[in-house]
Amino acid sequence: MLFLELPNEILWCILHFVPPQDSLVFLKTCKSLYQLKNDELFWRELARHNGIIYLHPNQTWWQLYVSGDLKKTCSHIHSSYRFLNDQIIKQDKCDLFWNTLLLISADSSGYDTNHHQEQKKSNCCQEQKINGICLYPNCQFKGCGDATFAPESNPGHLREHYHATGHTLVLKLSSLHFCELFCYACNKPVGFWGFPSMDKPIGERYLVRRIVQSLMNTLPTDQELKKKVIERRRAIERRLVWSQQSHEDSYIIERKWFMRWNEFLFEKSDQIPDHLTNKTLFKHHDVKELRSDIELGTDFELVGGVVRSYIERVYDIDGPVISAYELQWKPEYRKISESILFRRHIMQRGPQGVPTDL
Fold it and tell me: Which residues make Cβ contacts (< 8 Å) with residue 68, sequence separation at least 6?
């Protein structure tokens, strides 16, 4: 009996005992098995068998499997992703997002405090701040709890809402975890850990970017509300930048984009910058090899790990992002490393603190 004559369920059971990175070697043991490599329907059904029905546009189902990401990918995010395809639900979710954001910032940002007091009674609680919203379509719940991704130590009403409804995905709105997604069923962050060194599956990151960017870029039609929303966004992003300035965990980004971003943050421009393009920092023949002639303050700037993750999910990054830590061990980047160390020394000796304009 040929392998391909076996039911897919049997083949999937066999593959369960083969590490994904060794699956190509396994398929090469038999000519009929090797034919499966190009059978996208087989790998798509295998993914669906594991609860995964999405992948990155530049990825095939076979590539998803062989990368080992299939079992690491959140299988619940697609239920929330559906709202992007329905304009009415999308607008309702965007209204919930921005109204909640203004509501939780009312006391500390100088916005409409009277409106905050009127709405306070409709919150899930009065003592704790709202830390997130439910992303399930047609659900308008906003609640408190686990702002730092610690649901066991600070469960709050967000977790209670999950147990009551089964709505797994929430969007965090706390200052240093702004627009991060958390899945209660998987009990972990989705798309981004908050630390760039801890990569998530590319399909999961792609879907999170689609959700976050859709919410961030769909501004209110009311001009007064739109003005408040943009100012709130500026305040959050300024706080992120300031909180990360003295961190040793620094990443290199293109300076022209960084300056456009700063012009937006400090109200010199109303233009929200497009995606970050880092390709100009790399050699043309090898997009992974950083140029050794670039200069800090002229060609590139530094951002902390949390800011880098924020830029990636909110603005998107075209091209790789190099950690400054990696460069100190490479002689060809000695000049760059020394300038980074000098900048860090200056920042550590400068005035400390984080703006309180939130």
Answer: 19, 20, 21
pLDDT tens profile 175-217: 667 888 989 998 888 887 655 556 788 899 899 998 998 888 8
Half-sphere exposure of 39 (CA within 13 A, CB side): 13
Of all helices (H) and strands (E), which one includes residue 305?
helix 305-314
User: What torsion do the CA atoms of 69, 80, 147, 200 make, to the nearest 10 degrees?
Assistant: 10
**Averaged pLDDT of the chain:** 81
CA-based angle 186:189:307, to the nearest 5?
A: 175
pLDDT per residue over 342-353, tens digit each? 887 777 665 554
pTM summary value = 0.81
Taking the C-alpha atoms of residue 126 and residue 327, their distance in angstroms, rounded to an integer, is 49
pLDDT of residue 126: 44
Fold of 233-349: DUSP-like (3.30.2230)
List the one residue out of 203, 173, 178, 176 whose CA is nearest residue 191: 203
CA distances from 272 to 27, 70, 97, 314, 337 (A): 49, 35, 18, 11, 31
H/E element holding 84?
Answer: none
Instruction: Give the residue extent of every domain in the chain.
Output: 3-71, 78-217, 233-349
**C-alpha to C-alpha distance for 314 and 48, rounded to whole angstroms:** 28
